[in-house]
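hey so i finally got around to running the thing on that chain from the lab meeting. sorry it took forever, my laptop kept dying and i had to restart like 3 times. anyway pasting the input first so we r on the same page abt which one it is
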Amino acid sequence: MMRSVFREGETLRQDLTEAEIASIVRAGAGLLWVDLTSSADREINAAANDTEKPGEAVQHVLGDLFHFHPLAIEDCLNTRIESPKVDDYGDYLFIVAQSAVYGGRLERLDLTEVDLFLGPNYVVTSRQMPVPPIDELFDRACENLHLVNRGADFLAHTVIDSLVDQLLPAVEVMDEHIDELEQTILTRPERRLLSEVLLLKRNTLRLRRSILPQRDMVNRLSRGEFGALIRPEALIFYRDVYDHIVRVEEMLEGLRDLADGALGSYLSVTNNRLSEVMKAMSVVAVIFLPLTLIASIFGTNLDYSPFGLTFKAGFYLMLAFMALIALALVVYFHKRGWF
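ok and heres what got predicted. didnt touch it at all, straight out
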């Protein structure tokens, strides 16, 4: 699916034709934003039994209308999540940015990729799946001239900033979750908590692996390396995005330590409970060990016995002696504080 919005002066136009888009790119005037979603092509082609391969519409727009480099187009059509980066192709920049989708506390964190082309008077965004922040931003751009009246570099900043802003709520939810897990672990260390802690730890590591290259990518955009396409007055806005990423990175470092601590707490509490159980079982075993020995000795089937086989009170004396030993051991263990 392709959506487009174009501003020139006080005029705002939407859903331009391919001929109009090509003319705008050649003229280099105004500001054009083209948004492409390749997953919509798959749905439309499947419903219409179209023989066109998934992504061919996106490839046509990127290659035939904008004449982007084949390597950049290949990255856009790749179904795998690419690492965040920025490539300079002279007349335009190719930027790969990521955001996070965190549906709930017991779900796997998924990363979403948005590919962005920044040109002199245009911004092209491409994604495999719908990304709510981009959809909301595009709808706002169609209604508000403010988003598309400051230049392509400011619009690209707004797109990247909207993606980065989605990271902080995900980290805050994970932070609240780990706090609740730590409290629950100390009171009720159930087995299900271990899987939750491990899932949370994996989500933290997955997001951290995405943050590091994205931080470097935004840092390159914010230090004036691409002066031909990002004006000096826009650099401070990219530095603001960089500060947000650094903040998220610091929170992830703390969250990783908390996850390790929660895992250690679970193992410690579990081991302590196991030690208590083993200690109780050991005390019982020690108490019954001499009693078993006495019963074994006097239970032997021999003609000779210390009290004689015909001694009627021998059985009761043996029971009394065993009870006395058991009581003595219980008192001794209690004084030692073993239970």
